[in-house]
Amino acid sequence: MTLDERKKRILWAIIQDYIATAEPVGSRTLARKYKLGVSSATVRNEMADLEEMGFLEQPHTSAGRVPSHRGYRFYVDHLMQPEKLQDSEKELVRVSFETKVKMISEVIQRTGQLLTQLSSYTAMVVSPCASRTRLRHIQLVPMSRGQAMLLVVLEPGIVQHRMMELPPDLTVGDLEMISRVVNEKIKGSQMSDLKLTIIREIYAELLRHKSLVAMMMDLIEDSSRSKEDRIYLGGIFNILNEPEFNNVERVKTLLGILEQEELICNILNDQDQPGVNVRIGSEISCEDIKDCSMIGANYEVDGQRIGSIAVLGPTRMQYAKAISVVEYLTANLNEIMSKMYRS
Amino acid sequence: MTLDERKKRILWAIIQDYIATAEPVGSRTLARKYKLGVSSATVRNEMADLEEMGFLEQPHTSAGRVPSHRGYRFYVDHLMQPEKLQDSEKELVRVSFETKVKMISEVIQRTGQLLTQLSSYTAMVVSPCASRTRLRHIQLVPMSRGQAMLLVVLEPGIVQHRMMELPPDLTVGDLEMISRVVNEKIKGSQMSDLKLTIIREIYAELLRHKSLVAMMMDLIEDSSRSKEDRIYLGGIFNILNEPEFNNVERVKTLLGILEQEELICNILNDQDQPGVNVRIGSEISCEDIKDCSMIGANYEVDGQRIGSIAVLGPTRMQYAKAISVVEYLTANLNEIMSKMYRS
DNA sequence: ATTAGCACTCTCACGAGGTGAGTGCTAACT
DNA sequence: AGTTAGCACTCACCTCGTGAGAGTGCTAAT
User: Fold this and answer.
1) B73-131 confidence digits (pLDDT tens)
2) Contact, B77 vs B277, CB < 8 A?
3) Out of 1.10.10.10, 3.90.1150.10, 3.90.660.10, 3.60.70.12, which CATH number does the structure's domain A5-79 have?
4) B87-129+228-341 has which fold?
């Protein structure tokens, strides 16, 4: 399935134009506007061929042509060239990340904001997910009578907390002691190892508090397995400016999707390839947004994937720009995260 | 400004009908449907009076009447009676909160979900805000070389964390020691007291680590002042079912508002009166949602306000139901929070 | 292989006419 | 004096027909 140069040129021009105007594009306009050097009739013939090959579609006879999903795919893979970010945009990113950010959640949020701002589409960011990581620290903090808060710090700097009921005869000293012992034992161990040897050792050392420790272990496991990936969504408002969302029904289905955090997480986490990932229409495994495209990437620390970012827009998306934005922000994010959690 | 019984009856019927149908209501339908016992002509006269008094409005001559903001206000204050929750609905709330919830953020989220589900409008919940509370615990957790994580636990069970750069010659033992000393000093002190006496004492005791401690104090203050109230929004999708949002422009402005977390927080926090709070149209201090109403309440522990919940819907809202829902959930929330953080 | 020309198709904007729900006013009724 | 029936009038909305405009496919000439 190769296209000759002229067909490529024409397909490129059609997609370019449709992305810009959202109107079906006709042969006459095209030939004139893009100085193709041939007449509209020739273009018409080529367009008919391209349609037959599945790269274009016609909303109805005697309207112009519109790119098909396959057309966009070809465009992204072979025709388009990424549109570098402006210096002013790079500057914006630099400034946003420069002001000392001290918490993961802040970084996530900033990233999301930049993502929408620069792409003008909807941004999605999932923050580090906890499973399969190491334990860094645990801490029991006495709260009111009979209660304590269990703090769990996981490897890439995720903090989780849980409330615990305490047996009545426990002193503050006990809590500290338990924290200390457990910390020593678990230091640097994988979550998966916990179950076996270590728990026994801890039990042995803390016989008196056996039931409490059991409860703690439950909670620790619970929190490390917790799917509560924090998710940032932004610029939903942005995407409504696109003419394809001039129809309330569409907006409704889109919002319906976006509110299902778990679904979004799954879609975002479903990116295996390294680098920037473009999914067009039905390539996103979600029926309801088959007229959207999604550009995403994973970010990582020490080569280990810890989260993903993505933008969501109509299939008629400014791929060239959006891809560059995602790429640039991922690189920045990798750097920042590595700096925060170099180990 | 008092209304005779018949006028009240008619106003009530109009609002009731308009809430149900979203159509301007006319005299004939009204007289028949609500068995007013008088003819449509009489009703017509009364309606003209009510309009003159500012309780009704006419979209155009020869359409029916529509309640004005003032009309809704009168309805809420004098005509309506709260619609108790069904047993099945109460059961739903009970079940949702019963499964052991261990984190504030979970409670917040559940509450939000219930709020939309029961009211079928958009739900907003702001979680406990940190300012003006006591410090419960701080902890330095060594992370990678040269870095530590500072955990700050505030009174109502809010946990914040920050990354810190460390001077190179610090040992793990030092960190623990510092944590212990600082904890002892600050135990139970108000944030506002920190600046003065306590810091001096800590300095005196930790002379060697003066610069580190200064940095810690900065971060602690920063985190306690942090406006990062966690906010839950849900059911945006829900509200789009209302016919008033059949217009994309409206949806856009609404979403524009909802994305400004800070603005939402301010609006939610702007509730002084105890109990359920009804704000109609322009009574919400935000120009862009002057055709919405908001029903909110604060929730508290030991009489101290720690957050708020609210639902947002069109001014043509099921006040009777929504008010009951907010009331019921606030009561539940108060109870749960008190149980979690009884002191 | 390319192009000019032409008939054909389909959408969209516009205006006219009809319909129906609702109003205000007046005069008659209790 | 309050209530009601009757009537003329208003206005949004639906439908239908028409014409303009943009675009296509096909054919014949270059």
Assistant:
1) 999 999 999 999 999 999 999 999 987 666 777 888 899 999 999 999 999 999 866 55
2) no
3) 1.10.10.10
4) Beta-Lactamase (3.30.450)
Partner B contacted by A151 (CB < 8 A)? yes
The residues near B59 (Cβ < 8 Å, ≥ 6 apart) are B24, B66
Distance (Å, whole) CA A24 – CA B170 = 66
pLDDT at B294 over 90: yes
Mean pLDDT of A226-236: 79
pLDDT of residue B209: 83
pLDDT at residue A44 tops 80 = yes
Domain boundaries, chain A: 5-79, 87-128+229-341, 135-225
> Which residue would you say has higher pLDDT here, A218 or B93?
B93
Q: How many CB pairs under 8 A join A and B?
A: 114
State, as a whole number of angstroms, the distance between the CA of B61 and the C1' of C20.
Answer: 15
What's the gap in Å between the CA of B59 and the closest CA on chain A?
Answer: 23
| Same fold flag, A87-128+229-341 and A135-225 | no
Phi, psi of A156 (to 5 degrees): -80, 15
> What CATH architecture does domain B135-225 belong to?
2-Layer Sandwich (3.30)
B243 strand D contact, CB < 7 Å: no
| Among the partner residues A157, A228, A248, nearest to B143 by beta-carbon distance | A157
Q: Could you tell me which residues are beta bridge partners of residue A139?
A: A151
Question: What's A87-128+229-341's CATH class?
Answer: alpha beta
In this prediction, residue A181 carries a pLDDT of: 85
Whole-number Å distance between alpha carbons of A188 and A171: 28
3-class secondary structure, A99:
coil
